[in-house]
Amino acid sequence: xxxxxxxxxxxxxxxxxxxxxxxxxxxxxxxxxxxxxxxxxxxxxxxxxxxxxxxxxxxxxxxxxxxxxxxxxxxxxxxxxxxxxxxxxxxxxxxxxxxxxxxxxxxxxxxxxxxxxxxxxxxxxxxxxxx
Length: 131
Hints:
Structural class: mainly alpha
């Protein structure tokens, strides 16, 4: 592994980690596109690597900060985490059965939809605060 490759991987990890701690995103929104467009991974390689990263306890410190501030609902989180495991298994099986191009297309649509909704909500919030 070259120094440049190590630097890129560290940068991807830091950006994903900062965004994860800041707004709760990281894996799909940062790591997957970065691995595809910066490092040339296939869609499947990027998704698999991102899932590996998320399976590690990398967010424990961010979670502790939110917990200390009273912002973690453990009951809801445990239910979501448990079903996330099942959903992750089902989703990975489905993704591997369809073409990488279709997976990329669906992924892009989901990101575009979420982006549009967040931008609209943020704009409306900013507009109502100015009144």
